[in-house]
Amino acid sequence: MSQKGTGLHRELGILDVTAITSGIIIGAGVFIVTGIAAQFAGSLTWLAYAIGAIPVILVGISTIFLNLMHPVEGGESYVYPTRIVSKPLGFLSGWGMWLAVIGPIAITAQAFINYLNALPGTSVVFPATIGAVVVTILFSLINWVGLKTVKIVQNVLFLFMVAGILIYIILALPHMKGTNITMGSPLGFAGVMKATSLLLFSYAGLTLAADLGEEAKNPAKTITWGIILGILIPTLLYVVSAFVSTAVLPWKDFAASEAPYAAVASTFMGPFGVVFIVIVAWAAILSSHNGEQAVAARVFFGLSRDGILGGKTASVNRFGTPTFGLIATSVLAIILIISGTIQLVAEIIVAMFLYNWIITHIAVLMARKKFPELVDKLPGIYRKKGFLCLPVLGLAVSVYLLILQGWKALLYAAVWMIVGYLVYLVGISRNKKEILSRMDRWPES
């Protein structure tokens, strides 16, 4: 089914949306940053994951609220912020989110090659840069032929990954040691909070389900459950796998390993454990990469639909894929890979997501005044005055976590936002009256 006026196709069910959102973050999180977080939280890394879920749950609730008002493509990153909060601040939300998803595309492409080279018993070493570019191009081609293909690939990778992590957890349970569990954090609770700020990278992207509002079947139900399951499944896998891992292997050994989950698996599965974890990591990382390409193209589509980036940038091919968005996303990701600037972008990924979360909470707080007719149609729980305590709390927590990112991340983020604001000013000046009119007609436009 094609969406009138956009060329987008309603292809996604609950499993598809869950696989995209959960797949994006599990692959980019559990096998990449858990070991780093353990350096600060020790055997309490599981607690850092649990605390990190709190702001995610809060922004998830706010995102569900906005999606139930009016499901729309590019909604969470761009449309809701521009229509409800502020046109320029909303554009910057989408601009920041686009880079925040492109960064992990480059990171996961290189991570896949690293794990490919980590397979025991092989003498072939794949060049990281060239290999990462090939992975990016391959999945761009998969995305080019539409969500029908993307969701099949994503569902297979996601289900294999979840099954693999569950098998790892179950087999590890008998090998847990009480002495490892009670080792605690080397830096106390401050170390746990430092780890929490790092592990936000593992949760970044869960609310991107609301950017698929015009490609989901029955979007009110599908996106809502996609967000709920997209928070629940990764959180449980993160917390339990981190707890079990640092209970089997002392946290110092876990944190010191370049492939910490493989190090744990090798203690009770032998050499096969390393092979097993490497293969599961392949599925996890490629699941993340595939989902990120799909969503980044649609974030760019959302940025383009008002004409600020030029009329043709919102084009969609016969498969329902935002073509210019996919090309721009892939090209920028490849530039990051080749230029070696991935680490710089990694510094600002979480800051960009937190900015979007802040705008999302503000949008919920402003929604009743701006669009009372849409809010009045929401389920009763969302209309109660007490409900607004949740976005207020989410706003406060997100601002606090943004400050924790440090001056370097905030400085880099500010530079990207300044570039985005200049793009906004130039773009809107070309046809200001029509663009502003299109924005003001929402949700009818």
TrEMBL record:
Highest rank taxon of the organism: Bacteria
State the membrane topology.
Answer: Multi-pass membrane protein
Task: Show the Pfam families listed in the entry.
Answer: AA_permease (PF00324)
Q: Name one GO cellular component term.
A: membrane
* Compartment(s) of residence: Membrane
tRNA-binding recorded as keyword: no
Principal location: membrane
Which is a GO BP term held by this UniProt record?
Answer: transmembrane transport
* Ranges of residues in domain Amino acid permease/ SLC12A: 17-412
Query: Which keywords appear in this protein's UniProt record, sorted alphabetically?
Result: Membrane, Transmembrane, Transmembrane helix
Coiled-coil portions? none
Name by which UniProt lists this protein: Amino acid permease-associated region
Q: Which organism is it from?
A: Sediminispirochaeta smaragdinae (strain DSM 11293 / JCM 15392 / SEBR 4228)
* Species lineage: Bacteria, Pseudomonadati, Spirochaetota, Spirochaetia, Spirochaetales
